[in-house]
Amino acid sequence: MTIKNVTRYALVLLLGALSACGSENATTVVAPVTSVDTITAGKIMYSRPSYFTVNGTALTGAKVTVSGGCSTVSEVVGGNATARRFSCSPQSLNDVVISVTSGGTEITHAAFTVPKPQVTFTTDVGSTPIVVELDPSKAPKSVNNFLLYVWDGFYTNTNFHRVVTVLGGGFGIVQGGGYGTNGVIKSASHPTLELEPPSVTGLSNVAFTIAMARTSALNSATSQFYFNTVNNASFDLPAGQGYAVFGTVVSGKGEDVVAAIGAVTVTSNVPETGKGLSAPHVLLSAVQTQ
């Protein structure tokens, strides 16, 4: 065998060895299949940023849809193949639904309940707060207007400046949201509110409900509100008018505080303690807690 043939033969053997080696160790790469282990939620609050987390495998390419009355849906930066986080602000009491789709096929979905919003009032009457549950399904304009002032901190250190007691078949209310503790009126920071009359909402001015105060003009409410301390049926009339109820004190969570504020001594419906409109009872803070 010539040197040339020997070289050619060696090369053939080498290539054969390499080929055999490659075949023996070759592996097929299989893409991981998208799967979902859990979909969880943090505290869900009406009209406030609420967070939802999808946990699983190979989630990067999956399509996650958030629906059910949410607005401002966005994905939180920092997600990965095993966990992705989303936020939205529920604008209705409809369930928030999280759907996960891969390759055009839904893998799973989960529904989360949006509870009625609650606002906790801290006052200078003992240590018990007043907890008010709002009803955006029946009075959305009034609820959203009120929450704007709550989120702004507008009600911090304001007086319950007007108290009307029941005399001779009259009515009973405790009114606040318009004056600072110095007795100076606070200017409204949002537009006037369109009236949502009781004849339309079905929400009546019964004891321990909360409603919007206004002038004689129907669409004039801004920041001021009142608690009904008795059943004020006359406030529901006439049809298409009246005063807009938008929530109620949660049972066992503050009726006694409202009653205590409504029991102060007044002159011309103004609490006597202090000067001018400086009431003896103060709303220290109002915070959305649900």
List the helices and strands and how they pair.
Elements (H helix, E strand, L loop, with lengths): L2 H23 L9 E7 L8 E8 L5 E5 L2 E6 L7 E8 L5 E7 L2 E8 L5 E6 L6 E5 L5 H13 L5 E2 L2 E3 L8 E4 L21 H4 L7 E4 L12 E4 L16 E5 L5 H7 L4 E2 L2 E2 L10 E7 L2
Antiparallel strand pairs: 1-2, 2-5, 3-6, 4-5, 6-7, 8-9, 8-18, 9-15, 10-18, 11-12, 12-14, 13-14, 13-15, 16-17
Structural key phrases:
nine-stranded antiparallel beta sheet, alpha+beta, 32% strand, Cyclophilin, elongated, disordered N terminus, Immunoglobulin-like, 2 domains, single chain, 4 helices, 290 residues
Report on the architecture of this protein.
- The protein is an alpha+beta fold and 290 residues long.
- The protein has two domains: 78 residues, Immunoglobulins (Immunoglobulin-like, Sandwich), CATH 2.60.40.10; 171 residues, Cyclophilin (Beta Barrel), CATH 2.40.100.
- The protein has four helices and 18 strands.
- The strands form four sheets. The chain has a nine-stranded antiparallel sheet. The protein has a four-stranded antiparallel sheet with strand order 1-2-5-4, with no helix packed on it. The protein has a three-stranded antiparallel sheet with strand order 3-6-7, with no helix packed on it.
- A hairpin with a 2-residue loop joins strand 6 and strand 7.
- The longest helix has 23 residues.
- It is elongated, with a radius of gyration of 32 Å.
